[in-house]
Amino acid sequence: MTATRRSIIVPPLAAAGLAAFSESGVRTRLDRLLSWRLPGLRRAIRPGRIAILRLYGPIGGAGRTAEWIDLARRLRESRRVPAVVLDIDSPGGSAGASDDLFLALERLAAKKPLVAAIRGTGASGAYLAALAAQRIVANPTAIVGSIGVINVAPRLPRLLERIGVGVSEHTAGRLKGMGAPWRDESAPEAEKEQAIVDAIYASFVGRVSEARKLSRQRVVELATGEVWLGHAAVELGLVDEIGDLERAVEIAAQLAAVPARAAPVRIRRPLLGRMIDRFAARVARSLVEEIETLLGDRFRT
After folding, report:
1. DSSP for 227-293, written as a single string
2. 23 and 55, same structural domain?
3. C-beta of residue 94 within 8 angstroms of C-beta of residue 66
C-alpha cells in the first residue's frame, strides 16, 4: 500500500505573506487562512466534550449519507472526542445507505462509547443505526421500531397506453429489465424482488438480535414493521431506558469517565448551498402563511 499525499493550494497573496513567518508562525497563519476552507473537529468541539452527532431526516442519497459516514470516521479518529451521542429523529430510508451508516457507527462504537438518543422518531433504518450504540435511550413518546423492509415500484403500462405512449425494450439477460415501470413484472421478476427483500429483512433481524441480545425468533415476532412508543420499546427490549438527550450525554460521560459536557458537531455545507436552503425555507414559509390566511378568510364572519 502506497501513501497518498494531500496538496493544499494557497492563494498567491497568502503564499507571499507566509514567507515573513517562522515555521511555527507559518503553520499558525496557514491554519487561520484555511480554517474556513477546511472546517474540522478542532473548531467544532473542545477537548473532552461529548460529541453530539445529529441524525435528522430521511436516510438516503449518496451525498448526505457519505457526510454522516465521514463525520463518524472523523469522530472515531479524533483524540479530542472521548465519546459520542447519536441524536436521532429520522424515519429511516434507503436500506443500503442505512446499513452503510450502521457499519460506520459500529466501527465508531468499537473505538469509544456511543450512546443513541431517540428523541422524535427512530424507525426502520434509523433504528438500525441506533443498534450500533452500546446504549439506547428514548423519549417516552418517541416512535421506535418499524423493523421491516419494503420495496415499492410503480407500474404504469395502462397509463402509458391511455395517453398513447409505447415503450420498446431490448435486453440481454433474463432479469435485466426487472423493475421497469412501463410494464407489469413477470413471475420470475417478482420472485427475485421478494428474495432481495427477504435477504435484507433477514440481515436486519440478525442485527437486532445480536445488538439487543434477543433470540432471533423473538425478533421475528417483533419485526412486523410496526412501531411502538418509548415506554413500550423499553418493555420489549428494543430500548434500554427512557431518557432525553441530556440523559444520553450523562451515560456517555459515565462510560468515558469524563464530565458530562457536550457539543453538537454539524456538517459544514458550502455557503451557496446554505443560502439556497434558507431562501427555499423562506419561500415555503411564505406560501404556508398565505394558504393559512386564505383558508382562514373562508371561515370568517
Report:
1. EEEHHHHHHHTSSSEE--HHHHHHHHHHHHTS-S-EEEE-----HHHHHHHHHHHHHHHHHHHHHHH
2. no
3. no
For residue 22, indicate whether it is catalytic.
no
Count of structural domains within the chain: 3
158 lies in the same domain as 134: no
197 backbone dihedrals φ, ψ, rounded to 5°: -60, -45
Q: Which domain does 14 fall in, by range? A: 10-39
124 is catalytic: yes
CA 125 to chain centre: 8
Q: Report the distance separating Cα 138 and Cα 118, nearest Å.
A: 5
Evaluate whether residue 204 is within a structural domain.
Answer: yes
Domain membership of residue 294 (yes or no) is no
* 100 and 141 fall within a common domain: yes
Q: Tell if the pTM clears 0.70, that is, is over it.
A: yes
Instruction: Say yes or no: 73 and 118 in one domain.
Output: yes
Asked if residue 108 and residue 198 are part of one domain, the reply reads no
Q: Which of 78, 90, 98, 124 is catalytic?
A: 124
Strand partners, 123: 145
Determine which one of 111, 176, 186, 286 is catalytic.
176
Quick one: 23 and 101 in the same domain?
no
Residue pair 146/127 in contact by the 8 Å Cβ criterion: yes
Q: Are 253 and 259 in contact (CB under 8 A)?
A: yes
Per-residue pLDDT of the chain (301 residues), as tens digits, is 444 434 333 344 344 443 333 444 444 444 444 343 334 455 555 666 889 999 999 998 667 788 899 999 999 998 889 999 999 999 999 999 999 999 999 999 999 999 999 999 999 999 999 999 999 999 999 999 999 998 888 888 888 888 988 888 888 888 888 888 888 888 888 899 999 999 999 999 999 999 999 999 999 999 999 999 999 999 999 999 999 999 999 999 999 988 877 666 765 555 555 565 566 667 766 676 666 555 544 444 3
Q: Are residues 68 and 206 in the same domain?
A: no
